[in-house]
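Write out structure tokens for ALA-interacting subunit.
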Amino acid sequence: MMEEASTSASGGGGAAANGGQRGFPPARSGVFYRFTQQNLPAWKPAMTPGCVITIFLMIGVTFVPVGLVCLHASNHVAEIAHRYDIDCVPNTYKRNRQAYIKDSSISKNCTQEVKVKYLMRAPIYVYYELDNFYQNHRRYVKSRSDKQLRYGQKYTHSSCDPIERNDGLPIVPCGLIAWSLFNDTYGFTRGSTEIKVNRKNISWKSDREHKFGKDVYPFNFQNGSLIGGGKLDPALPLSQQEDLIVWMRTAALPQFRKLYGVIEEDLQADEIITMHIANNYNTYSFGGKKSLILTTSTWLGGKNDFLGYAYLITGSLSLFLTILFALIHVKNPRCISINGRHQRLDWFIH
């Protein structure tokens, strides 16, 4: 009996010694179980002072030059930004701008002049900029039907609510995003010469070819009593209505720019450019702002100093920490215990 008990105990111990058995079902001895229990072997680097200082030094030496290059590229972008939503309101309506924008009998045409400070080489991109307009609002973003934009009015969904049907007929394109389409228009002249603006290919090619149908036409759009924004040409398919395609790609922030067109000729320094604006879009009811942007671009894109400053600040901070940690380590070296004896861990003495 003693031998049998001993054999049984040793057998149980052997089973427990097999990786993961220990009285558990075989399913608990696999790699997945060890992964979920964090029992897999892992590499745990020893972050010695020398390793930490070297990492910060490499980050600083890399990031500072990259930040300077990004700032240099951003500073070479020539840009004109002109806010017009206030200047384009007649003096008699300065105190009641909503009455002005809602009265269809009042002309919304406006002429503004700007001076080109620097040489702007083509292509020159024309953007409109809106501020305090939340395209990222949950109900606003959901109020659309991607299937309808692609395949037509046979797809109607409650997700387009509240702009889904009018007089019992479906609306194409439906939803709040399409209904609030931006409808200000712009023209430019240099003296008596018109500056042409190319309105083609201002949207993403993937959107034109895959998200908006080539045989889907606007239907029953902006025919209700309440008009939200611009109208669409019922004779053109949605894939060719690029203003709509650009507008339907919603912005993540309340201040955003969207491409209106491209000027394909140079603008010389000290030139006076006349902007002919149709101030149709109602931003006055929610305290929004409208601006017209003319800008060039570089290999890095448009004017944006954030990326350059982010690299510079991160790199400078890393270099500062490198110097600080090196001085601290020289003054107070880290010690470790080997066989009961304390030894200095000088990263530079080996």
